[in-house]
Please model this.
Amino acid sequence: MSASQWRRAMNRQPADAPVRPRVSSPLAQVGPSEAVAPRWTSAWRAIRIRHAIALIALVLLPFVATPFFTFQVASQALVLGLIALSLTFLGGYGGMVSLAQMTVAGIAGYGVAVLGTSSAAEISLGWAWWVAIPFAVLIAVACATLIGWLSVRTEGIYTIMITLAVGVAFYYLVLQNYSVFNGFQGLRELKPPTVFGLQWRDPLPFYFLSLFCALGGYWLVQWVVRAPFGIALQGIRDNPRRMAALGYAVVAHRVAAYAFAGALAAVGGILLAWYNGLMTPGSVGTSWLINILVIAVLGGMRHPIGAFIGAVLFVLLQTFAIDLVDRERFNLVIGGVFLAIVLCSPDGLLGLWARARARFAPRQTTTPRRQA
Model:
């Protein structure tokens, strides 16, 4: 008998020996619900605490920061983040990269200017704000639905080119039309309404208005992606042919996603018009079509919070890069940071954060099992 055969014979239990269950971990001694419940409870508690801390910090920010930082940085980042959130929803959960989200936002901004009041009294209709705002949002959502209907039958670079063509066409439309959009001068003196005796363009009220809209858009996206519509949309993103074979209307889901994203961009466009106090062709130019894509990619398109993280970084660079380089060349700093982040992490800043957590997280050591 060889040594290996002898070891196998010694380790083999007799036929009449009682079988002892092998316990691999302490969680195996309890039921499934008892083992999983503490883990889910602690995870849900951590998420709630993290959200509460972030919400408290956002509420207290304007009381500790200067009015310049509150209005020029924080408020602008929230507004641009809301517009980029619409692109994050389309790209991250629908697999559709659209360059027309700033166009939809511009349509809503021009809608408020034309239907409401502006410097061009001969153009603006002078409707009340509670009538002009819903109509402007409806017009923008209708245009977003039309853009989606035109582009959802294509994929990849073709979708990008169609939406880019729509954005460029709208830019030249507002640039050359004087009867409705007032040409290159645009529509100025766009002021938010005075409600409850507050001037909503002041730094503190406008910040909280932007924060309320941004949080509403964020939680709405979080709810939609977990709803049956959002789950089906993610399935269409991964395999549209299989979802069509299961009976889902692929084109209808994609067009509905464009309509929902258009509503988010429309609200952001109205806030952007009030923030700038005007709507001009430069507000919907090609540079801003690209900037929204840059913001979404900087933060990471796999989670809604990435749109606001990318917006904060973009606004900080746009505001303070002039102190580092010439005014004509500060876009080089933004482009350099963008290339550095994309080359290091295709998922943006959230991808870098996830990789850092995985690298520095404590590793769990397992003790070797002893043979019976």
About this structure: The first helix runs from residue 3 to 11.
